[in-house]
């Protein structure tokens, strides 16, 4: 566990340093875990977990903050305890991507979007990449000294022998809510549900555990059953006494493996793949990028 936490912390700090907090919308309102009856025994483990994380964070990572449940307007008959961590923050991923593209351009890196790679293989002293052109009818071929494959949950299409499980996440965002009572990032039910404020809106996602089979897909579609569950939890747990409207919904695809850690592997001397961020790729990716470089022998 410690190794993964350390990498996430190091990764996000690298990202902040590289792009700048202002350009990624970094805000530190802290993070909270909402604990229901079923998960109450986990509260007794806080001291143990804080002890384990002592060498990564300077002070206690988690503390109980039950007084805030009412202040934030959550349903006190369901949320029985709340655990707070000052080390959790939020970023604006749209701003972050835009800053990353600008940063890459400033280094002379050219990013080509909308170009689907069909095959990729190592030749004698180069890597050959064959992609569809924009019409999808003709093929384009690129040669490269080396290649890094970061296609995550979509990798099986390119390399059927690489096993990675897609996991779709359903997300909704509310319209601005007058008098929204909380700021921060929040999780409950072992991380299967997650929400945060974005200004005075709520972004709320999760519920994959309600329909694992249908959510193990690379299709960007909405799942009504899960979205209804998210709305129900907004009504009963998060905003029991407040009026709100849903603005829009979307889905995103994550890549999972059995070891629940990212995999970085050579598939030949010149080709490395970095996959399966297991839903932690925003935090981990800058760290992973450093690790990838160590894999190249040429
Ligand atoms: C709802 C949701 C919430 C999340 N919350 C968090 C969070 O709080 N913290 C966190 O750290 N992480 C979070 N994540 C996870 C994070 O978004 C992912 O781990 C991260 O996006 C993985 O990055 P990646 O570049 O490896 O893969 P992806 O972002 O999946 O990118 C893969 C890219 O490869 C492209 N591609 C695929 N096949 C081909 C092909 N044949 N040719 C060309 N291009 C191809 C795809 O179009 C895509 O752009 C969340 C994810 C979701 C869906």
Question: How does this model look, in words?
Answer:
The structure is a single chain. By secondary structure, the chain is α+β, with helices and mostly antiparallel strands. It has a domain at about 110-165 and about 260-290: 3-Layer(bba) Sandwich (FAD/NAD(P)-binding domain). It is about 30% helix and about 25% strand. The protein has helices at about 1-20, 20-25, 45-50, 70, 95-105, 155-160, 210-215, 225-240, 280-295; strands at about 30-35, 65, 80-85, 115-120, 125-130, 140-145, 145-150, 165-175, 185-190, 195-200, 200-205, 245-255, 265, 270-275. β5 and β6 form a beta hairpin. α1 (about 1-20) packs across α9 (about 280-295). The site of flavin-adenine dinucleotide has 21 residues, from β8, β12 and α9.
Summarize the helices and strands and which ones pair or pack.
Blueprint: H1 2-19, H2 21-24, E1 31-35, H3 46-52, E2 63-64, H4 68-71, E3 81-85, H5 93-106, E4 117-122, E5 127-132, E6 139-144, E7 147-149, H6 155-158, E8 165-174, E9 185-188, E10 193-198, E11 201-206, H7 212-215, H8 224-238, E12 246-256, E13 263-266, E14 271-275, H9 281-294
Parallel strand pairs: 1-9, 7-14
Antiparallel strand pairs: 1-3, 2-3, 4-5, 5-6, 8-11, 8-12, 9-10, 10-11, 13-14
Helix pairs in contact: 1-9
């Amino acid at each position: 566990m410690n190794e993964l936490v350390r990498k996430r912390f190091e990764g996000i700090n690298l990202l902040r340093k590289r792009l700048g907090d202002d350009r990624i919308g970094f805000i530190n309102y802290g993070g909270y875990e909402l604990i229901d009856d079923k998960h109450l025994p986990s509260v007794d483990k806080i001291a143990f977990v804080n002890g384990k994380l002592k060498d990564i964070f300077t002070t206690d990572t988690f503390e109980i903050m039950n007084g805030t449940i009412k202040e934030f307007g959550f349903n006190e008959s369901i949320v029985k305890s709340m655990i707070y961590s000052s080390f959790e923050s939020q970023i604006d991923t749209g701003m972050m991507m835009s800053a990353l593209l600008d940063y890459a351009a400033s280094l002379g890196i050219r990013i080509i979007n909308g170009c689907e790679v069909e095959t990729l293989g190592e030749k004698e002293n180069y890597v050959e990449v064959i992609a569809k052109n924009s019409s999808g009818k003709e093929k384009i071929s690129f040669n490269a000294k080396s290649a890094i494959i970061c296609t995550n949950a979509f990798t099986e299409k390119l390399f059927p022998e690489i096993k990675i499980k897609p996991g779709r996440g359903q997300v909704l965002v509310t319209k601005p809510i007058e008098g929204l009572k909380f700021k921060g990032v929040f999780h409950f039910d072992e991380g299967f549900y997650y929400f945060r404020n974005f200004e005075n809106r709520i972004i709320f996602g999760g519920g994959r555990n309600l329909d694992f089979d249908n959510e193990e897909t690379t299709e960007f579609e909405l799942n009504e059953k899960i979205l209804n569950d998210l709305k129900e939890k907004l009504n009963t747990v998060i905003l029991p006494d407040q009026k709100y409207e849903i603005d829009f919904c979307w889905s995103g695809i994550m890549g999972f493996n059995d070891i629940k850690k990212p995999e970085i592997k050579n598939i030949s001397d010149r080709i490395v793949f970095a996959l399966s961020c297991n839903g932690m790729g925003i935090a981990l990716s800058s760290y992973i990028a450093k690790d990838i470089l160590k894999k190249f022998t040429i």
